[in-house]
Write a structure and sequence with these properties.
heterodimer, A: alpha/beta, FAD/NAD(P)-binding domain, 5 domains, five-stranded parallel sheet, 29% helix, 26% strand, elongated, B: alpha/beta, Rossmann fold, four-stranded parallel sheet, globular
């Protein structure tokens, strides 16, 4: 039989002025299992806590009910108090007689009746409580950053500077991401490469950072503090241990294919560095276009290489590494506008380019060495039309959201054209102009002063006529149709999550939102965490954002990781699901319902009569389980139960109320 | 005297820890007033609520049951309340089939900031149940069962 102590708090007059302790305490004394009941002005105060502790030892109490404010207020306080006594901190229930009774009811008699009911519920529940023990899990002091764009670079540098080991994983042959492709950054017009490449070099040289480029995540298991990640190193066919990156091989390769970095505006060889400032500054061979790898004929690079780095027999390898925390920094890609907008020619017209292609065009290291030229005939355009929100804010054809950075880079593109091509004309078709950011509105104003013509409306059709492009649309401010003959059209296209985000998030158990961006744990208060413990977010994988926001979020995620890695172990809540193996039929209904992938089916040895058999039962991973209890309601045989909120405990509460 | 005159229903509300329980606490902080009929049982998530709890409450003579959680899409555990929603749509129909007035069972979404909604919901449900009168359905069945020496339909 349990020996329950009930302690009624007056909370000054907050409780006692409505709920009568002189009725409540004696009533509690009569409840089944209660051996002691007392009331006091402030239970949470030092003397209040001392009184509880003394009563526990004096009356041999083995579990307690405190009738006071909400458990959200002082449950932790009283659990801590119990650590210094003979009883387990989880042998405690709180009856909320302040927020949910004295503060919301005026009738003293009825409020006291209700308080008695609430205490009775708590007394009945606590009679079924059992000691619970928090597990502590060790923390592997090492972080994995997935994605080597500016978000991943910043996060990796911050964590490494704090003294922790970091692996920075990138699927392309070089880190740098989209920022490395940009020409200038708004609103200051800093050269993008000038500010990002030094950071890339820092990453490559940092003693605490290990770069794993041309690698992909193959599988993830484990939980916060101890993730096991299988990483596949794609075959490079170049031995990076001895390669010096001299570049001789690239000059003589006979193959020419579209350059990914220049978005098809130039060609690259089959053995290539992604771009001249690539980190690591060593080439890889693209197996899909290399003649030697496809047909076994060629081998020029192997003959040329002075160090013998080329290895056509190189194979992909998988390594498994342990990490305490993971940062997702997988970034974005631009939508395939050609597939979505048939009315813009669907990709037929060469002089319609995306904003990112324009970045490469206007970049001094790009295919035209910074000269703004039409792709079709290499002429300088006189009139350029910029179309904003292509795919953004267009729920019918594209994405319903705003891609956030386009208004500003459209203004930047207009500025660059007007600066580089004096006498040219730029028309910007827009829905709204959104410039929330430091110095952004001023930059937009300046662009208009420079002579960019902003037309409010969408372009409904673009067609070719006499070697030019006719853009037909509406000026919704004038309420009339407009037609602009342009030499070149730049489409500021929507951002969407990088390809492969589905696979990666489902490996991690992280959720995605309606637009496939990775879901943050809370939109306001936990913006850099995912709902999976130990998995954090940086940059555009969470949603469209510009570089300053991306870098801030990366540093925020790094701070979270540093905080975690500074501990050597962490306590997990013991209020998690538990399986009664004898009852489990191994149906697996719980496996699918668990949002944390915390339940797996495990084969065990069992007996059926005299026979030894093997059968599957559910097994809960205490590192992953967050204690929601969804599995317990789904369990057909009642084998799963939630510690601290067991079926038996809740049913006791129900019975106590209905008495 | 009619059956329902002066009758005060007994209602149990299973509230999720993260939204509705917080909302109920907020109602207290704002000193909002609502009827004393509802007793809150705290659960981590509305998805934790086993239909068994509800049946037991009705069986033991509870006049009304509420299950309250975060709004769909806002679940602290990401998907728990979607299961709640589906489960209790079925539950409601089953209760009706069993002869329990569907007005006795309510599944509602109340966020941590919707103190006023909590107050209004409690007031509304209490009022409805006052009109419906005491729930005697299973009590009588139990009593008959006991009289016949068969014991109750224990869960």
């Amino acid at each position: 039989m349990s020996r329950i102590g009930v302690f009624v708090c007056h909370c000054g007059t907050n409780i006692a002025s409505v709920v009568d302790p002189d009725r409540l305490t004696p009533a509690a004394r009569e409840m089944p299992g209660v051996v002691y009941a007392a009331d006091y002005r402030y239970m949470c105060s030092e003397p209040g806590q001392q009184m509880i502790k003394d009563s526990i030892s004096e009356h041999g109490i083995d579990r307690i009910v405190i009738a006071s404010c909400s458990p959200r207020m002082h449950e932790t306080t009283f659990r801590k108090m119990l650590k210094g006594t003979s009883i387990n901190p989880y042998m405690l229930e709180i009856a909320n007689i302040r927020e949910q009774c004295s503060w919301v009811h005026a009738d003293k008699g009825r409020a006291t009746e209700k308080a008695i009911g609430l205490v009775r519920m708590a007394v009945s529940k606590v009679s079924k409580n059992e000691p619970l023990y928090a597990q502590s899990i060790p923390i592997t002091k090492r972080a994995l950053v997935i994605g080597g764009g500016i978000a991943g670079i910043q996060a990796a540098l911050d964590i490494a500077d704090a003294g922790h080991e970091v692996v920075l994983l990138e699927r392309e042959p070089s880190i740098g991401g989209k920022m490395a492709m940009l020409d200038k950054t708004f609103p200051t017009l800093d050269c993008s490469a000038c500010i990002s490449t030094p950071k890339m070099v820092d990453v490559g040289a940092h003693p605490n950072i290990r770069l794993m480029t041309y690698c992909e995540v193959e599988s993830v298991s484990g939980y916060i503090g101890s993730f096991e990640v299988a990483i596949r190193q794609k075959a490079r066919y170049v031995n990076h241990d001895i390669c010096t990156g001299c570049g001789l091989c690239e000059t003589k390769c006979p193959v020419k294919v579209d350059s990914e970095f220049n978005l098809g505006l130039s060609k690259r060889p089959a053995i290539y560095k992604l771009f001249p400032q690539a980190v690591p500054s060593k080439p890889v061979i693209d197996s899909e276009s290399c003649r030697m790898l496809k047909d076994g004929k060629c081998g020029i690079c192997a003959k040329l290489c002075p160090l013998g780095c080329i290895d056509y027999k190189d194979e992909a390898r998988t390594v498994t590494e342990s990490f305490g925390a993971i940062i997702m920094a997988t970034g974005y890609q631009l939508v395939d506008w050609a597939a979505m907008y048939g009315e813009y020619g669907g990709g037929r017209y060469r002089d319609i380019i995306s904003g990112l292609q324009f970045e490469r065009t206007v970049n001094a290291a790009g295919p035209t060495e910074g000269h703004i030229l039409r792709p079709s005939d290499g002429r300088e355009p006189e009139t350029v039309v910029i179309v904003k929100c292509v795919g953004s804010r267009d729920p019918k054809k594209g994405k319903s959201y705003c891609s956030r950075a386009c208004c500003m880079y459209a203004a930047k593109h207009a500025h660059q054209i007007l600066e580089k091509l004096p006498g040219s004309r730029v028309f910007i078709f827009y829905i709204d102009v959104r410039t929330p950011g430091k110095g952004y509105e001023e930059f937009y104003d300046q662009t208009r002063m420079d002579g960019a013509v902003y037309v409010r409306g969408r372009i409904s059709k673009i067609y070719e006529e006499d070697g030019g492009l006719v853009c037909q649309g509406e000026d919704s401010l004038l309420g009339s149709q407009v037609r602009v003959r342009a030499d070149m059209v730049i489409l500021e296209t929507a951002m969407e999550p990088s390809q492969g985000i589905e696979g990666l998030t489902s490996m991690l158990g992280a959720a995605r939102d309606a637009n496939n961006w990775i879901q943050e744990a809370h939109p306001k208060l936990r913006p850099v965490e995912t709902q999976v413990g130990g998995v954090f977010l940086a940059g555009t994988c969470q949603g469209p954002k510009d570089i300053p926001d991306t870098v801030s979020q990366a540093s925020a995620a790094a701070a979270k990781v540093i905080g975690l890695l500074n501990k050597s172990e962490m306590e997990t809540s013991p209020m998690i699901s538990a399986v009664e193996r004898d009852k489990c039929s191994g149906c697996g209904a719980c496996v699918g319902i668990c949002p944390y992938k915390a339940i797996t089916l495990q084969e065990i040895d069992d007996r059926l009569g005299a026979k030894r058999i093997k059968r599957e039962v559910a097994s809960v991973n205490s590192g992953l389980c967050q204690g929601c209890g969804a599995c317990t309601a789904a369990c057909r045989t009642g084998a799963l139960d939630l510690l601290g909120f067991r079926n038996g405990q809740i049913l006791e509460e129900v019975d106590a109320l209905c008495l | 005297m009619s059956l329902t005159e002066g009758f005060e229903p007994k209602i149990i509300a299973f509230c999720c820890n993260w939204c509705t329980y917080t909302g109920a606490d907020l109602a207290g902080l704002n000193r909002m007033k609502y009827p004393e009929n509802v007793h809150v049982a705290r659960v981590p998530c509305s998805g934790r609520v086993n239909p068994q709890f509800i049946l037991r409450a009705f069986q033991k003579g509870c006049d009304g049951v509420m299950v309250c959680g975060c709004h769909p899409g806002d679940c602290h555990y990401s998907t728990g309340n979607y299961f709640t929603r589906r489960r209790f749509m079925l539950m409601k129909r089953m209760l009706e089939y069993n002869g329990i007035d569907p007005g006795r069972f309510h599944a509602r979404w109340i966020s941590g900031s919707e103190a006023a909604k909590f107050r209004d919901t409690v007031a509304e449900v209490s009022e409805r149940l006052r009109k419906l009168g005491p729930n005697t359905k299973y009590r009588e069945a139990l009593r008959e069962g006991a009289d016949a020496g068969k014991g109750g339909a224990g869960i």
